[in-house]
Amino acid sequence: MTVQLTALVIFVGVFALSAVRNAHLGVLMFAAASGVGLGLAGMSIDDVVAGFPVDILVLLVGVTYFFGIAHVNGTIDRIIEAALTRVGHRRGLLPIVFFLLTAGIAAMGSPLGGLVMAPIGMLVADKRDIDPMLMALSIGTGLGAGAFAPTSLFGIVTYGTAHRAGVDLSPLVLFAVAVVINLLLLVVAYVLFGGRQLLRATSEQSAAVDSGTGEPSSPDLPSGSARKPFSGSQIATVIAMVGLVGAVIALSLADLDPDIGVLAFAFGAVLTLLDPESAKKAIPRIDWPTVLLVGGIITFVGVLEHIGAIDMFGEYASHIGVPLLAALFICLVAGLVSAFASTTGMLAALVPLALPLVASGSIPGWALICAIGVCASIVDVSPFSTVGATLVATTVDSGERPRMTRSLMRWGLAMVVVGPVLLVGALVVPGMVL
């Protein structure tokens, strides 16, 4: 037991050291995994390295390369411009549109990619008299929904880790849970921050515009940009994006377990032949830092599994006595720590730590892992996280920023409690009963 406890202390210590020194967690984790594996576990270096998640690496590299091409050749910007132009004067729909746009971008490999909508959304909110909290939460919930798509980082890490552990978790089910929960939170944001009044005013604004006395028909974008036709490479990219999503859905429905990374490489190869220059520029957009982050943590987790530390942690969690309380505890930890640290790191670390509880048979594995994943992400609007800090920083009215900081902190900390109660109640409890 001493070896297991020592390894767990080192595991937690590396997280702390990375935060204090602002050093890359994945690099430190891989080095520590090698040291613990060789020095404490008596493993060979080949066995340690074998724990590196090559399958997740292929997913991340393939997906971020494919969508990197879509960013470089301007396809993503054109889709955003076209969508916002179509909304026109209907400002009550703008938060919903920014939810959808952010979700779409976050689904393209890197969740934080959705933050490109923050400066646009907060500017539109200021000019269209929309509460910046409503716009911020629209962007934050959109990012949380898209992040669990089968093609995005949180989804890849969560279901990829579950599959490596033998837990049957459908990536589409995980995505659906994230979308439903974040849509529910968006409804709450509409109720709390003036959304209902905006929606009621939409019909009045429509009548005013029709009579020539209302607001302009397009939301504060560069004039005429959305009216330019898509180029040939952009049309091909849109077709490839639809093809990728369609292939994932079709193969999943056929129970063929699609390899999304390989599919992304295949569609990316086609775009590379059609537009080699954009493809070259997309290579630096491959998310290598995240590959290292996830790879280092999962490699260390593999060492912990080898020496029995994961099973020991699961036994301690089971000593809580009631499996449901143990599930709530793990989800609470996921949300609380993720509010101040890397969500990706929490997913890579906590999903394996929950597996012994799943192995006991008292908790449905797919439900608990979905709950952990979403609980770790819905707190990301906390101003202590990258997402929340960006939303505060892009608030146009500097006088509103202190209020935004307070409000986002309250929302994020509320989600630490609301998330576990809601998700365990909606997923784990019915799974235990049925």
Q: Can you offer a commentary on this structure?
A:
This protein is an all-alpha fold. It has a domain of 283 residues. The protein is 74% helix and 0% strand. It has 22 helices and no strands. Helix 4 packs across helix 14 and helix 17 packs parallel to helix 20. The longest helix is centred in the C-terminal third of the chain and has 33 residues. The two termini are 37 Å apart. About 1% of the residues have low confidence.
Order of helices and strands: HHHHHHHHHHHHHHHHHHHHHH
Largest sheet: none
- Shape descriptor reads globular
Quantity of strands, as a count: 0
Give me the number of helical elements.
22
CA-based gyration radius: 22 Å
Average pLDDT:
84
Compact summary:
With 434 residues, the protein is mainly alpha-helical. It has a domain at 74-230 and 308-433. Helix content is 74%, strand content 0%.
Highlighted features:
434 residues; mainly alpha; 22 helices; globular
Helices and strands in order:
Layout: H1 2-21, H2 25-39, H3 45-49, H4 54-72, H5 75-87, H6 94-106, H7 117-127, H8 132-146, H9 153-164, H10 171-192, H11 195-210, H12 232-253, H13 260-274, H14 276-282, H15 288-307, H16 309-318, H17 323-338, H18 343-353, H19 355-359, H20 365-377, H21 386-393, H22 401-433
Helix pairs in contact: 1-2, 2-15, 4-9, 4-13, 4-14, 4-15, 5-6, 6-8, 7-8, 8-10, 9-18, 9-20, 12-13, 13-14, 15-18, 17-18, 17-20, 17-22, 18-20, 20-22, 21-22
